[in-house]
């Protein structure tokens, strides 16, 4: 029986501390399986597509999809995908997730700050959009606490919100 190769992490990074360094990193052939194994809690599954679906979708939209793994120290803990159209310019947080084992540690907020800094450096970037399905377990509170405001628009069952990039909210 053929066994899948696994990346062995150092013992102290299997459970990174709350103050771990957060980074956004390219997903490589060596890391893609670990990123695809990241999962949100079962109650959150209907709010975000699995990472494997997102990575596949990104590969079929290479001119508009920018995606990275979110790391805490050397441990992959999440995934982010941005719709990036500098010709429009349109910047939209397409996917964002933190694995259920790593939620509640501040990693998501710090990763979103890094993403905002990335978008701010893009041509003519003034707004970052996002959409979410409201309901129990929805990321609505997370986005609003970060500074996103509802636009009053809907995309089917999803609320459209935006973050004005002139001011980044204060760190908590």
Could you characterize what this model shows?
There is one protein chain. With 172 residues, the chain is of the alpha+beta class. The chain has one domain (17-164): Gcn5-related N-acetyltransferase (GNAT) (Aminopeptidase, 3-Layer(aba) Sandwich), CATH 3.40.630. Helix content is 20%, strand content 30%. It contains 4 helices and 7 strands; from the N terminus they run βααβββαβαββ. It has helices spanning 32-36, 51-59, 107-120, 140-146; strands at 22-25, 65-72, 75-85, 90-98, 127-132, 149-155, 158-164. Strands 1-2-3-4-5-7-6 form a 7-stranded mixed sheet. A hairpin with a 2-residue loop joins strand 6 (149-155) and strand 7. The longest helix is centred in the middle third of the chain and has 14 residues, at 107-120. The protein is globular. The termini are far apart. Mean pLDDT is 89; it is low at 1-12.
Can you tell me the CATH superfamily?
Gcn5-related N-acetyltransferase (GNAT)
Structural class: alpha+beta
Distance between the termini: 50 Å
* Strand segment count: 7
User: Cα-atom Rg, whole angstroms?
Assistant: 16 Å
Estimate the global geometry from the Cα principal axes: globular
Give me the CATH fold name: Aminopeptidase
- Under CATH at level 1, the class stands as Alpha Beta
Can you tell me the CATH architecture? 3-Layer(aba) Sandwich
What count of helical segments does DSSP give? 4
Strand order across the biggest sheet?
A: 1-2-3-4-5-7-6
Indicate how many domains the architecture comprises: 1
Name the average pLDDT.
89
